[in-house]
Design brief:
With 172 residues, the protein is α/β, with parallel strands linked by helices. It has 9 helices and 5 strands, in the order βααβααβαααβαβα.
């Protein structure tokens, strides 16, 4: 079964821009449904980007509260199991040091940044894994490594959220 791995911006941009949790109830109901059906997953590093106040519920924003209350317990996958794939992504990024600024490499390879890890997770089974992200390829950008760049190198498929829903035949 193909797996769709969602980037943090799948949640963040939806909530902030198009589908606020307090307005677009059917969108979030559908996200919950496809998450519980195992059609979408994410990784622990995305969880870290979404969950800012694990021990202080009163400081959690609406998105963090929604994720905690609605996503399956096993939704966020452990990336430490994919260290060999991560090393391949690191090697690719380091080899691009003549194109990207040092700050772009530092950010992309930061342990707290999800992008390299989400690519590494998908790299373990690139024929059956698609990354869902709002990021778009920008080969001229030297200040930031975007998910599509390593995906293109490793032949990992990536799509946006509306393409995800279309491929799954889901409406909301």
């Amino acid at each position: 079964m193909p797996v769709y791995v969602v980037d943090s911006n799948f949640f963040i941009q939806a909530h902030r821009d198009s589908y606020p949790i307090d307005v677009a109830l059917t969108f979030w109901k559908k996200v919950k449904e496809i998450a519980h059906a195992g059609k979408i997953v994410s990784i622990d590093k995305v969880k870290d980007e979404l969950y800012h106040h694990p021990s202080a519920p009163e400081k959690q924003d609406a998105l963090e509260k929604w994720c905690r209350a609605n996503l399956p317990v096993d939704f966020f996958k452990d990336t430490s199991l994919h260290i060999n794939s991560y090393q391949s992504v690191v090697n690719w990024a380091v080899a691009k040091n003549n194109h990207y600024k040092a700050s772009a490499l530092t950010e992309f390879l930061s342990a707290g940044e999800a992008d390299a890890f989400i690519v590494a997770y998908a790299l373990t089974d690139p024929n059956n894994t698609t990354i869902v992200t709002y990021e778009k390829s920008d080969l001229l950008n030297k200040r930031r490594i975007k998910i599509p760049e390593p995906c293109n190198h490793f032949n990992i498929r990536f799509i946006n959220s509306m393409s995800l829903f279309r491929e799954l035949g889901e409406t909301f």
